[in-house]
Amino acid sequence: MLTFAIGCILGRSAQLTALLEQCHDYAGRQPARYVFLGNFINAGPDSRGVVETIINLQENTANRVIALAGENEELLRHWQVGDNLPRWLNRGGGATLRSYSATSPQDLPASHLAWLQRLPEVFSDQHRLFVTHENQIAPGERRLIVVGSRGAKGPIGPPRDGGKLYLGLRAKPSEPPSAAAFASNPPEPLARFTARPV
pTM, whole model, 2 decimals? Predict the structure, then answer.
C-alpha cells in the first residue's frame, strides 16, 4: 500500500482537490492511505470545503485517511481556553469563520467541531512517524520523521540525531500545498508533488 503524506492545506480546497488528483494518478490501481499533517484550516478561502473533503474521504475509504491536529486545529478545538481565540484568529481563523458564514467558533457545525476534537496528534507505521510539529518527536526515535509544520527544515534533510531524516511538508498561504508518496519499504519518499495551479 502507498502512503501519501499531505502538508499544510491552509483552507485551500481547490488546491487540495488538485493535489489529491495527482496522488490518485500516481497510485493508479494500488491501494493508498492518506495522512494529513495538520493545519488544513485557516488563511485560505475555503476551510469548510477542506474539512468536508477530508471527512468525506474518511467515510469512503475504510480507515485509510488519517487527519492529524496541527496548531490551527488545536487552537480551534480549545478556543475557549486562555488566549487561544485571539491566537487562532491571528493565524487566519477569521477566514475559517467566513468560510462557514460564522461569527464565532461556537457557530460552527457541531459535527465538524466534534470531528476536530477526535483528531489524533501523531500517526506511525513500521518505518515512519508522522507528526505536525517537531516537538512531538520522542527522544531516541529512529524512524523517518515526516513533519507537517511550517517550521520543518527543508524538503529532505540529511540524517541527523542518530539517523533521523526530516521531510518537511511546510506551506505558507502564498505557497501551494505539497505531498509525498511512500511505499511500505524503504521508508524514504518515492515522489513529491506540489498542487497544480487552479
Answer: 0.91
